Hints:
- By secondary structure, this protein is of the alpha+beta class.
- Helix content is about 50%, strand content about 15%.
- The strands form 2 sheets. It has a 3-stranded mixed sheet, covered by helices on one side.
- Strand 4 and strand 5 form a beta hairpin.
- About 20% of the residues are buried.
Amino acid sequence: MRQDRKCTVNCLRRQRNFFDFMMENELFDVLGRKTKRQGGYMTYIPNFKSPFIFANFNGTSGDVDVITHECGHAFQGYLLRDEEIREFADITMETAEIHSMSMEYFTYNWMELFFGDRKDDYLKMHLEDSARLSHTDVWWTSSSTLCTKNRR
């Protein structure tokens, strides 16, 4: 988490208050445990006007993918936390990914903090994964089940 803060402070100075707020209020539960559910997500706690990030880090590059992606969601929640009409802060599934995926790319220049001299390997892998997604139509059914259809 210290590396993530360095990245956030250096590359996104305006987001410093957000990250400090998250750290000071212990709004991350990301360290791995055997009995913990896999994956990662961001949720919002309305009574505290706070985003919360859950993940189960396993020591892979996926940890960086998850924390940068979920911090994008959390930052959006943080920016709109004082919105009096809560429905105005709620966004659609499609627009939610703008914040999260943007955060992944905004942090590219600081991936050396996480990967050292293997930074370029990570960036190549991340871009290849992104390109694969662009060849897939993705939509959500009303039951929030992810569905994909390959383009031909």
